[in-house]
Amino acid sequence: MDVQTISKFKRILFAERERLLNNTKESIKHDLNTSSDDLPDEADLAASEINQSLTFELRNRERVMIAKINTALQRIHEGSFGQCEACEEDIEKRRLEARPFSTFCVSCQEQHEHREKVYA
């Protein structure tokens, strides 16, 4: 992969990581702060707990995504970005444009997902 393409993916990964981190900061400020005065009855309390549970699940997904982005940035640094971890072939550029933190080519990803489904 040429230097210009790698720079493009590096910028995309940094921008996405920054977006996720900002999203998390905003969520902490707004979504997770509730006062007992704002919840006068049990229905409001239950709705608030459901909202917080959903917020925690979304933050967890974002945490996983940030870890994948950091791994992709490390792979760029090491020079292995865009190479499938399983078969060591190049990952298609279209796949990297859709998911720049991909570590498997399409066929290896399908095999990986099939194994997870069978053994899960």
What's the SSE blueprint?
Elements: H1 3-30, H2 42-78, H3 93-98, H4 106-119
Question: What does this molecule look like?
Answer:
The chain has 120 residues and is mainly α. It has two domains: 1-81, DksA, coiled-coil domain (Four Helix Bundle (Hemerythrin (Met), subunit A), Up-down Bundle); 84-120, no CATH class. 71% of the residues lie in helices and 0% in strands. It contains four helices and no strands. The protein has helices at 3-30, 42-78, 93-98, 106-119. The longest helix is centred in the middle third of the chain and has 37 residues, at 42-78. The radius of gyration is 19 Å and the shape is elongated. The model has no long low-confidence stretch (mean pLDDT 89).
CATH topology group of the largest domain = Four Helix Bundle (Hemerythrin (Met), subunit A)
Strand content: under 5%
Residue runs with pLDDT of under 50 for 5 or more positions:
none
Tell me how many strands there are.
Answer: 0
Shape: elongated
In DSSP terms, counting alpha (H) and pi (I) runs of 4 or more, how many helices? 4
Q: How many domains would you count in the coordinates?
A: 2
Helix content: over 70%
CATH class call of the largest domain: Mainly Alpha
Question: What structural class should be given to the helix and strand makeup?
Answer: mainly alpha
